[in-house]
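It is worth pausing here to work through a concrete case rather than discussing structure prediction in the abstract. The textbook approach is simple: state the sequence, then state the predicted structure, then interpret. We follow exactly that order.
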Amino acid sequence: MKKLLVIAMLSLSASIVNAQSQLKSIETIIEDPKADLQVVVYALNRCGGLYINLAGMAVSNSDQNAGNVLQKRSTLFFEKAFSAQLIRDKQTGRKVSDKKVLNEITESGRIFSEIYQKRLTENRLNTGYYVDAFIEADSQTCRVIANQLSIF
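Step two, the predicted structure:
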């Protein structure tokens, strides 16, 4: 079971990295009727990865205050993802250490951050703007999730 989960996570990570242009919006993913707590963990990680990039953009545009706020929100998304994963592990009987779960959340967050960073950079090079409709839609969805979870 443990090996299967690790293989599934690695496969998911690899397929996401290899198919960045096919990345579905967070809204599309969480609206799937088959969504479970793992989807919540996924969405929270995506939001954390997005917000860490938005924080970097704010700082690079000399808005340290906004950067600090966005960084804090990113951290809160990752903390909620960690908590949700612990709950899911308990529900499914998966026995792993908190440290292992933290490492998994950290790695997923890093991967999503890289994906968003690449997209933001490509957008900037191609259009002169960092944010496109996809990034804006994910940002809006993350705001809704954050409001529901009292992150903001």
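Step three, interpretation. Confidence is low (pLDDT under 50) at residues 1-10, 12-19. DSSP finds six helices and no strands in the chain.
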